[in-house]
Write a structure and sequence with these properties.
Blueprint: H1 7-22, E1 27-30, E2 40-44, H2 46-58, E3 63-67, E4 71-73, E5 77-80, E6 87-91, E7 94-96, E8 108-113, E9 116-121, E10 125-127, H3 131-136, H4 142-146, E11 150-155, E12 158-163, E13 166-168, E14 175-178, E15 181-186, E16 189-191, E17 202-205, E18 208-213, E19 216-218, E20 224-226, E21 231-236, E22 239-240, E23 246-251, E24 260-271, E25 275-281, E26 290-301, E27 305-310
Parallel strand pairs: 1-3, 2-4, 3-6, 4-7, 5-8, 6-9, 7-10, 8-11, 9-12, 10-13, 11-14, 12-15, 13-16, 14-17, 15-18, 16-19, 17-20, 18-21, 19-22, 20-23, 21-24, 22-24, 23-25, 24-26, 25-27
């Protein structure tokens, strides 16, 4: 149980960070009032959003980017740090991606990169409008799949709280967490049809201190998928289904993958999924390690494979 002892202090420090930051008057950067964004579902939000982010990120005092209620079209945005002070995004509206998958040339739609002391909240929706992509996303069409965007990416993000946000109909994964440290995702809603391919709810890799709490995930692939290099992670109070369950892996497909260790998954309900608690590894020559994995108090309803350790995972029948 030792690996879990590091998780609680990191969450405590994270909460103290935002409590202390809230005592300082933060500067508000409203994308509509200050940067000319239009909530008409037609005008691209990317420039007002990026301009607001850059000003807020440059602020030496805590700042908040505000996206008011309404519907916004967003072609793509890359929000980079480091920032000079803690930064928040208050998303109240619905942000929609272009419905046509050909609008994307790489797997990015909304991306946060190299940000520390960050919070996103507000009850808003990131709508990937993925229905056209679902029809074309087949095993034979891998080049098409390689360009499909993830709804929200967190890359190299440290000390973050993502709270009360909805990800809807992502064209590929809903949320991807890569090389992050001490990031908590709480009270999220993730929604996609059960026939939507490769729409993992939350995927992560090479990250430490990830906490996923009290979230509802309905999608067409893994509700949560845990990649190599994930350490000291807590998943609790999740409702999952439809989908493929909560999975560690797949692992072992590539050389030099980092170990997965210190994962605790508890008090979850999994309903109408193909799998429940799963570990999946490729039948190849690349070795790896998975250790200190705890599935506890998991309720499963109508799950054909409730517990599955699959060391012959081979989705493309090779």
């Amino acid at each position: 149980m030792a690996p879990h002892l590091n998780i609680v202090p990191s969450m405590f420090v994270l909460l103290l960070l935002f409590i202390s930051a809230s005592k300082v008057q933060s500067d508000a950067f409203d994308v509509v009032a200050k940067f000319g964004a239009k909530a008409d579902g037609k005008t691209d939000l990317s420039k007002p959003f990026l301009d607001a982010w850059k000003e807020a990120c440059a602020s030496v005092t805590p700042s908040t980017v505000v996206i008011p209620k309404g519907t916004y079209l967003l072609s793509k945005v890359n929000l980079e740090g480091p920032c000079k002070a803690p930064i928040e995004i208050n998303v109240q509206g619905t942000i929609q991606a272009p419905a046509d998958p050909s609008a994307f040339k790489d797997p990015n739609w909304v991306r946060f990169y190299s940000v520390e002391n960050f919070k996103m909240f507000g009850g808003g929706i990131f709508d990937g409008q993925g229905s056209i992509a679902y029809e074309k996303n087949t095993c034979e069409n891998r080049e098409f799949r390689s360009k499909l965007p993830v709804n929200i990416r967190f890359d190299f993000v440290t000390n973050a709280l993502i709270q009360d946000i909805t990800s809807k109909d992502s064209k590929l994964f809903h949320i991807n967490v890569f090389a992050c440290k001490n990031i908590t995702l709480e009270r999220l809603k993730i929604e996609a049809p059960d026939e939507s391919p490769n729409t993992d709810g939350i995927h992560m890799g090479k990250s430490e201190g990830v906490n996923i709490i009290a979230s509802d995930i309905k999608t067409g692939d893994d509700c949560i998928s845990i990649g190599d290099g994930t350490k000291n992670m807590v998943i609790k109070e999740i409702t999952c289904g439809p989908g493929h369950g909560i999975s560690i892996g797949s692992l072992g497909k590539f050389q030099n993958e980092e170990p997965v260790e210190g994962i605790k998954i508890s008090n979850c309900t999994i309903t109408n999924t193909s799998n429940g608690a799963r570990i999946k590894t490729w039948p190849g020559e690349h070795g790896g390690a998975v250790s200190e994995i705890h599935f506890e108090d998991i309720t499963m309803n109508n799950v054909p494979s409730p517990i599955l350790i699959d060391q012959q995972y081979c989705p493309w029948n090779k």
